[in-house]
From TrEMBL:
Keywords: Membrane, Transmembrane, Transmembrane helix. Pfam families: FTR1. It comes from the Bacteria. This is Ferrous iron permease EfeU. The keyword Transmembrane applies. PANTHER family: IRON TRANSPORTER FTH1, PLASMA MEMBRANE IRON PERMEASE. It is found in: Membrane. Signal peptide: none annotated. It is a multi-pass membrane protein. Belongs to the oxidase-dependent Fe transporter (OFeT) (TC 9.A.10.1) family. The chain crosses the membrane at residues 6-26, 38-59, 71-91, 112-130, 150-168, 180-200, 239-257.
């Protein structure tokens, strides 16, 4: 439940900030009611596109069975983990210029295609955030015991996002943009690690990867990953009480790469 709430919260905040940036640009440039109608039409289309993607994934799963279903689920876990990493690194590189880039894209689209351009830019921006959320939630739903709490956690995450976006928009001092995105980025990378661990577990179970040594250790006497607290830690970080050597190697490699990718850029001169 915790990972679902956090993912919906973070992605919804981003989507709401995008809408706020586009809305303020349209108001400043006197696009009028027609421009705002195009903005809201784009928001609706973006949400609908994300919903279609979610429906396609569920429908595809319903059509598959046996080995094909296992392959599909392993693939979706890897895609979800990869998307989270890609999104975090993209925000790290382009987050500071997001407002400027959105304004430029909207100005160019409005000049070329008028109201259709406004709706298109908005729809693509919202669909991107919504599609990422749909893939993440599908990946989380593959974790044991997460299906039942998915909807409630998603609704709570959406409500919390609205409150956060309002607070950020009001410029409240306790919410700093840089700290908000830095903290949430590391949390998302931790969720990506949990999805990656689940995928590797399935690859090992299917005989596609060797376990090498299994288990490498047994810390179940301290915290079993089948207990309530252990299950929560497993969903948030990928913790395993009895990991194989292969799992530990993949986990360590992942965090070594992420630590290198997230380290501050060196300034020259």
């Amino acid at each position: 439940m915790g990972s679902t709430l956090f993912i919906v919260w973070r992605e919804s905040v981003e989507a709401m900030l995008v809408v706020g940036i586009l809305y303020s640009w349209l108001k400043f440039n006197h696009a009028g009611r027609a421009g705002l109608h195009a903005l809201w039409l784009g928001v609706g289309c973006g949400v609908a596109l994300a919903g279609v993607l979610g429906w396609v994934m569920v429908a595809a799963q319903g059509e598959l069975s046996g080995e094909a279903l296992e392959w599909f689920q392993m693939g979706m876990l890897m895609v979800a983990a990869g998307l989270i990493v890609q999104m975090v690194l993209w925000m790290r590189r382009h987050g500071a210029n997001m407002k400027k880039d959105l304004h430029q894209n909207l100005a160019q689209a409005m000049e070329r295609s008028g109201l259709f351009g406004i709706a298109s830019v908005t729809a693509l921006a919202i669909a991107r955030e919504g599609a990422e959320t749909a893939v993440f939630l599908y990946g989380v739903s593959l974790e044991p015991g997460h299906t039942n709490s998915l909807l409630g956690a998603a609704v709570m995450g959406l409500a919390l996002a609205a409150l956060t976006a309002w607070a950020l928009g009001r410029g409240l001092r306790f919410l700093d943009y840089r700290r908000f995105f830095s903290f949430s980025s590391w949390m998302l990378l931790s969720f990506a690690a949990a999805l990656l661990v689940s995928a590797v577990d399935r690859f090992i179970g299917a005989g596609l990867l060797p376990a090498l040594v299994d288990p490498l250790w047994n810390s179940a006497w301290v915290l079993d990953d089948s207990s309530r607290l252990g299950s929560l830690l497993s969903a948030l970080t990928g913790y395993r009480a009895r990991p194989s050597l292969m799992l530990v190697m993949v986990f360590a490699t992942y965090w070594w790469l992420m630590a290198r990718a997230m380290r501050p850029a060196q300034r020259h001169g």
